[in-house]
Amino acid sequence: MYIAQAKRKENIAEYILYLWQLEDLLRALQFSPEAIWTQLVAPQAGDDPRRQNDLLMWYVDLGSLLREEGKTRSGHLDHTLHLIADLNDLHTELLKAPAGARYRALYARLQPELPRLRALIGKADLSDTELAFRVLYAAMLYRIKGDDAHRKAVTDSLELVSPVIGELARIFHLVEKGELDIWKEPDDEKDAPSC
């Protein structure tokens, strides 16, 4: 809970990937409150009863959401999918907006790889943004599992995917904080790169 809150404030991409990891971890623990306590709560909460209770309730609530959404075996919480949809909306805007020049350059490098990645992930109907998240998550899972055959197929594209998602998350954070209007034309003097 505390880690998720910090990630949500700092980096939306890390937050989404962290929640996806927790979904799989809760499934592996079979949503058992006892297993959640020993594996997740006790190592984080120390002797603070309030913190222990908050963490346990948060993990149990996540498990309940997965059950309610019919995602006890696979799938991702609607909450994260809505966030990815918001990021994809921003992606679409950045392809046209004045503040998207750097993003467009990074995305142009990734774009030729998208058909191969879409075939590899096996879902043709994903937005480019969700596809990129799934590639990042798959690479993480393959690394954890030690599955070198599949990992190589995905990690070859990480040097293209990671910068795109990193830049998208950075811009999302600035827009969310009200520090960037992506449609405002850059001020030549103020926004010119320094030499």
Automatic annotation (TrEMBL):
InterPro entries, alphabetized: DUF4924
What's the short name of a Pfam family annotated to this entry? Answer: DUF4924
The protein's name is DUF4924 family protein
Q: Which organism is it from?
A: Candidatus Tidjanibacter faecipullorum
